[in-house]
Amino acid sequence: MVATALTPDPSSATTASRRLRVTEIFHSLQGESDSVGWPTVFVRLTGCPLRCVWCDTEYSFHGGEWRDIPSILDQVGGYATHHVCVTGGEPLAQKRCLPLLVALCDEGYEVSLETSGALDIGEVDPRVRRVVDFKPPGSGEVGRNLWTNVGHLGARDQVKFVLADRADYDWAVARIEEHALARRCPILFSPVHGQLEPRALAEWILADRLPVRFQMQLHKQLWGSEPGR
Ligand code: SF4
């Protein structure tokens, strides 16, 4: 596994402990999850310990800028938008993600967190809607799924499966059964952009009477793979 390599914060340890490495903060439409379509501010944190073969945010693996939480809140506030999504990379790879989420909730935002399912979600502020993106075999990272996360899921959270082929689909169906996921929270199925024909996935779901919600990434339909969208 490739480890995330971030350049150390050059400032003091005390200051560094209040900072996060941020790839970008931008304003767009939420492209997926139960908040799809809402104008949303995205805070994309830098770094990810996974390397999914179809990852579309590789530019977030390295670089970024050290920002303290008040400066992030200032920029988010400038967009005058109620919804905020903290994403990555893998946002929970930075321990200061947790106080950032608390601060955003304290400001009154509707906050969601997009996380890979490979890191523990148990310490995330309960006001946050957690979207847990468990990785199927086609991602190359199926061994990283942390299934103890299922025990933390509640009705406000969502589980997402991004599927590259029929083998991924069958694997996801088996995991839904194994972990009784439909009793915990909504389940989202999406095709890997450009790899799985969306219509095929829709027809499999209907044929199997699956209790899942089909989604295509709205932002990809509107803007393609343009960063900052
Ligand atoms: S977890 Fe997300 S950001 Fe990390 S490699 Fe996979 S798709 Fe990319």
From TrEMBL:
Residues where Mg(2+) binds: T57
Residue ranges constituting the Radical SAM core domain according to the UniProt record: 35-225
Alphabetic keyword roster: 4Fe-4S, Iron, Iron-sulfur, Lyase, Magnesium, Metal-binding, Queuosine biosynthesis, S-adenosyl-L-methionine
PROSITE patterns, alphabetized: RADICAL_SAM
Pathway involvement of the protein, from the record: Purine metabolism; 7-cyano-7-deazaguanine biosynthesis
Pfam families linked: Radical_SAM
UniProt keyword annotation of Glycoprotein present: no
Family as reported in the entry's similarity comment: Belongs to the radical SAM superfamily. 7-carboxy-7-deazaguanine synthase family.
Protein name in the entry: 7-carboxy-7-deazaguanine synthase
